[in-house]
Amino acid sequence: MITTRSKRLILNLCSYIILIVSSLIVLIPALWMVSTSLKPSESVVSPPLTWIPDTITLNSFVKIWKDYPFGNYFVNSVYIVIVATVISLFFSALAGYGTSRFHFRGKGSFLTFLLMTQMFPSIMLLIPFYKVLKTFGLIDTHFGLIVVYISFTIPFCTWMMMGYFQSIPKELDSAAMIDGCSRLRTFVQIILPLSLPGLSATAIYAFLVGWNEYMFAFILTTSENMKTLPVGIAQLNGFYKIEWNDMMAASIVSSMPLILLFLFLQKYFISSLTAGAVK
User: Fold this and answer.
1) 142-166 and 196-212 helices, crossing angle to 10°
2) 136 and 187 fall within a common domain
3) Is 248 in a helix, a strand, or coil?
4) C-alpha of 247 from chain center
5) Which of 56, 79, 167, 258 has the least CB density, counted as fewest CB within 10 Å?
């Protein structure tokens, strides 16, 4: 008869096997991307395909900066996404705090509207956005893309911040206001420092949405000086030839800001996920 301890060991073993297989499924494409980026052009598609290149070279990483306007794409993405993320955090924090602390007429309809905006595919908004931006002369501008990105992120970021603010006791607001703080001062000096985990998780979400967005950046920008990283990487596809090693090197470089962002904000992100778990 199988004892309780044996059942626990079997269950743990199965869990580890599932985790290992899942990790391999996730890591294999990333490892193949790194392997391809380190290969010379002639050996990328030449049989036999190997994981470890016979000749390891960093020419692709040098080439993307030297032969392509990759630096311009990178700077454009960093500027647009950081500005859009900061603006989204500012307005979503204010809206999330207001909806978590005040009861007003139409609050339920307002929150439902914010949630419903996430139910429709973004391609439905492509033509309306194009017409609006063209009317105001914002086609092929950084500001036009920033407006588009914050319209995508603010609704869901507001929900994220509202949920986190609701986990902070309202008694803190009351205590601060008894001590003479205004509502705005209470929000800035008391509530915001306590909501760093929620802000970090919201910032990661907003940054990911803007950094990986391709369709609107492709349609709403026409000049090389305005294009972002996803559009630039897609243009590495040649008409007669695809430089896979260059494309993989560009993909690795473009993923580094996301990795660094998560590493620096990891502790806040994890604490935001567990916030309210015992409430």
Assistant:
1) 150
2) yes
3) helix
4) 21
5) 56
- Which H or E run contains 260? helix 244-274
- C-alpha–C-alpha distance, residues 168 and 213, integer Å: 33
What secondary structure letter does DSSP report for 22? H
Neighbours of 142 (CB within 10 A): 17
Strand partners, 242: 237
Q: Is the confidence at residue 124, as pLDDT, over 90?
A: no
Rounded to two decimals, the pTM is: 0.83
CA atoms in the 13 A half-sphere facing the CB of 138: 16
Whichever domain contains 242, its CATH number is: 1.10.3720.10
Question: How many domains, the chain?
Answer: 2
Long-range pairs, 43-49, Cβ under 8 A, ≥24: 44/244, 44/245, 45/244
Q: Which residues pair with 108 in a beta bridge?
A: none
Residue type, 110: F
Whether 49 and 245 have beta carbons less than 8 Å apart is answered as: no
Q: How many whole angstroms separate alpha carbon 244 and alpha carbon 265?
A: 32
Whether the CB-CB separation of 224 and 69 falls below 8 Å is answered with yes
Residue 186's H or E segment, with its range, is helix 183-186
